[in-house]
TrEMBL record, chains A, B:
Residues 1-54 form the HTH lacI-type domain. The lineage of its organism: Bacteria, Bacillati, Bacillota, Bacilli, Bacillales. Pfam families: LacI, Peripla_BP_3. One of its GO terms (molecular function) is DNA binding. Keywords: DNA-binding, Transcription, Transcription regulation. It comes from the Bacteria. This is LacI family DNA-binding transcriptional regulator.
DNA sequence: GTGAAAGCGCTAACAT
DNA sequence: ATGTTAGCGCTTTCAC
């Protein structure tokens, strides 16, 4: 095929290669002939062969847990991050290889590099557990470029792009205080996610800063699912009725919505008796009643930033310093946290 | 690397290859030595080189429109279908190559095969427009295996996996009639999606079958976005107040939710004055007030089925008959369509 | 059952 | 500026 193009254009195969890959110098006129010949024979070079010859897969891997039953992600989170990564990868000529990891599957990330399936990878939904730490350490040791999204590992300087969850939580607390709330609770997620820990720390700091009381009983625990939010409604309602709680910040929107539904059934008026704020500002918060205040996280940008930085590092390993980006978040105020909050 | 494994095992490179790829016959004992050697040297074959030699990319392409601003998909739809495809591909040893198509980008699907980036592909969100038809015709002509998801093209026997939207709509109409509703409207999406046309046909059939009146003014049009549902609230409210409408079926949940919000603002009590049913049964329908009745579509299964059938066809081109699968849907009844519907 | 060698379709020196 | 040639790391005949 390529040979026929070369013949038709009256040049060698090497020249065909040069023209089509834009590497090396060729006379304008020769290039034109080659292009025409390729056009006529409907020829395009095999990316597979190119990549093999170059010893680069041309793929950016995205590793993420199999979705069914994974509560950490709203589908919103997932779609946004992935789109951001997709855009950035595309602009840089990389293809996106999607790698689902099933729950019991070993985290053999380094193998993806050894088999040359990917040139770099982004990890979504990594957890701070020993097997994950080992897998990441192996990547690091093998000098395989990777980047974490929305997760970091204490003590390890891994590339990561995250939202500034702490700042968001502090802002939420300040907002509630400004609105006259004094007894602010926090519904958090599991500590295997660094976000959970960051938010808890910020929650305590913000309370301390304002001279407000920190009370352990006001910190509730869920697993980021709607259901666990729903299940905490009873405890929250009791505290509210006892006059010991007038606001709750939930660590994600799903739990906030579950809590909202549970409270509604228990007759607690959210937005009035109790102010409620979620995190993520996913697409569902506009659909609840009352609309849910939430901390907007730029998921699309997080994905884009992670891919851009990572691929830049791959393109230019020389001046590739490790990065640890925190993108700003923004509190979006809606009726669920306003004193005049109504339907 | 491979050479060192061969040396260590005391065999030729060809034998190493045979052992690791499981092709050809090797003595048990030899195989064991090779495996140990590979293990010791931490060697795994390059998938890139293998695929190059085999002239197969090992990738299943998934083509989908860039998400931002695409209303057709809820993120729910997207995540579910993709997960289903991912599971099936993985089981068959294929990797998933995600290919975002930007709005103005030419639909040059065939090139993905020519460049050997993919061995087969699944198209999500295809539209019935000329450029799409051309691109698909080119795939067909080149004998490139592909499968459509949730879309079909009249007159073309392309592989496709879809939900039985017509059956779902008929069931919804019957449900409403059984609940005493007599004046049923339909909020549809654009006709470039075959689903829209299928549903409209089924809507008319079901009405005719029941001897109920079909009135054009009761068919409203949106673009599958929440916003267009919201914008139709005024027209719907007017019809309801005029006693000319007591139920609406929306072609997806997003529009249903927009409509629900709009109606609420206009003081129409959904579930009572007006019964409302959406389509997709996405994760948000449990979060609205009242909860939204919806037609459940097995998106995960659709993705899985598409990938399985397609990859089976690739594995066995001999007996690969074109397929056109319709998966059953199920009406999930909630308060928005029940006579006693309340919060 | 195993080894030797050709070839997959490119890229990249090196030579001219 | 262009042609020649040697790989890239596998698979796969074809001998033995």
């Amino acid at each position: 095929m390529r040979k026929k193009v070369a013949e038709l254009a009256g040049v060698s195969e090497a020249t065909v290669s040069r023209v089509l890959s834009g590497v090396g110098s060729v006379k304008q006129e020769t290039a034109k002939r080659v292009l025409e010949a390729a056009e006529r024979l409907n020829y395009v070079p095999s990316a597979l062969a190119q990549r093999f010859a170059l010893r680069k897969s041309g793929n950016l891997g995205v590793i993420l847990p199999m979705l069914p039953k994974v509560n950490l992600f709203s589908t919103y989170y997932f779609s946004e991050v992935l789109s951001g990564i997709g855009i950035a990868a595309k602009r840089r000529g990389y293809d996106l290889l999607l790698l689902f990891r099933e729950p019991e599957e070993p985290r053999d990330y380094a193998n993806l590099f050894r088999t040359q399936k990917i040139d770099a990878c982004i990890l979504i939904g990594a957890q701070d557990v020993p097997s994950e730490r080992e897998a990441l350490a192996e990547l690091k040791e093998g000098h395989h470029p990777f980047c974490l999204v929305n997760q970091r590992f204490g003590g390890e300087a891994y590339n990561s792009v995250d939202a500034d969850q702490g700042a968001g939580l502090r802002e939420a607390v300040r907002h509630l205080l400004a609105r006259g709330r004094r007894q602010i609770g926090f519904l958090n997620g599991p500590a295997v996610y660094s976000n959970s820990r960051d938010r808890l720390d910020a929650y305590r700091e913000a309370l301390a800063e304002a001279g407000a009381a920190y009370e352990p009983e006001r910190v509730l625990l869920g697993n980021y699912s709607r259901k666990t939010g729903y299940l905490q409604a009873k405890a929250v309602a009791d505290l509210v009725r006892a006059g010991r709680l007038d606001a709750v910040i939930a660590a994600n929107d799903r739990m906030a919505i579950g809590l909202l539904q549970g409270l509604k059934e228990l007759g607690i008026r959210v937005g009035d008796e109790l102010a409620l704020i979620g995190c993520d500002d996913s697409d569902v918060v506009r659909m609840t009643d009352p609309p849910l205040s939430s901390i907007r996280v730029p998921f699309f940008d997080i994905g884009r930033e992670a891919a851009e930085r990572l691929l830049d590092a791959v393109a230019n390993p020389a001046d590739a310093a490790p990065f640890d980006v925190k993108l700003p978040v923004e509190l979006i105020e809606r009726a669920s946290s306003m004193p005049d909050g109504t339907t």
